[in-house]
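Methods, example record. To illustrate the input and output format used throughout this study, we show the complete record for M18 family aminopeptidase. The sequence lines were provided to the predictor; the line carrying structure tokens was produced by it.
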Amino acid sequence: MQEIQFNQGLLNFLKQSPTPFHAVTQISNILEKAGFIRLSESDAWNLQKRHRYFVTRNDSSVIAFTLGSSNLPETGIRMAGAHTDSPCLRVKPQPEIVNKTYLQLGVEVYGGALLNPWFDRDLSLAGRVSYLSKDKTLKNAMIDFEGPIAVIPSLAIHFDREANKKRTINEQTDLPPILLQVSDQEKPNFREIVLQQLRKQYPNIDAESVLEYELSFYDTQPPGYVGINQDFIASARLDNLLSCYTGLMSLTQADKNASCLLVCNDHEEVGSVSTSGAQGPFLESVLKRVCPSPEDLGRTIDRSVMVSADNAHGVHPNYANKFDDNHGPILNQGPVIKINAKQRYASDSHTAGLFRYLCQKTQVPVQTFVMRSDMACGSTIGPITAAKIGIKTVDVGVPTFAMHSVRELAGAKDGFYLYKVLKLFLSSETTNSK
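The corresponding predicted structure is encoded as:
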């Protein structure tokens, strides 16, 4: 795969994945086309060597793996990890707000979102809907309004002369998006609006009523190249769908004789505590079914290594003083090894050295990020998975700007750089030597 082909696939994946539910659907489709066999957690598994499998949980997390030709306790499993969720605005269960003829929807802020960029954007809605069918069965379906159906207008500067210096955002009162205008006699029902969209999107659906939903607003501006020389990629949800796509491409094109695995968890942005999050039992449950013997599982994990891929902070030229002078990653200069003495990242000298060695073998430049010592550091699924499973882990990522904004920026070369390294990592049976 060449860089242009990789990036075109990435842009399409980002556009088709406005929510974790849509991302996992896209991942599942790509896996099936690559010959991976879909499993269900509720079924008995009959796993065979030299076969490739995947399983989803909650429609928002996915684990895909290849069982190679070797004995797992002797070789271990090469694993890559990422997360499917991104900060956004989630619609509340009873969201209808009618004020001055405008129908607005109450929203919750999901994750550590950078809120100012959400104003004056053309917004749409997408997510999962749980509905009651005509035969009284509970069913789920994904919906996407696709077009711009909402906006959060800024307050004009004439009413807040200090807006460019001191404006703050009240998450309860300042963020409800406007959907439409209504008369005084109308009593809008958002569930009816969702039901209409269900029937529009699925003409043959037997939906009788909408019971519940998990819907998020998203920016309708499509992903694309930015810069005179197209040096950058701009998009929503680069954190962390870029890593999901990179891991996915690496896994599907890795050596089929090597045992390797990709896990993409939901709920990282809110702490990972869920059935489908990294603190949940999903990965552990799958590994136990791959290695039913406790002794074999222990030996396999001890010989395994995980690359936790989650975007890194590129040094911002307008705010360079916010970064450690010796650890400011540059866009388009390669993936970043993330280090933190307080274990906010799981990298240690062994795993970081392994990743650096893989970069050397693939002739990919590599960088290092350490947060300023006087600033708090974020975290990833890396330390959580390492602590829960006991697997040696390195935290890496592609450098980006505007992390957690409604539109983020990455270098056009770095995703492909990381893909080359992960492909070699997942194809190798010997990279975890002690």
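Annotations derived from this record:
The radius of gyration is 22 Å.
Confidence is low (pLDDT under 50) at residues 430-434.
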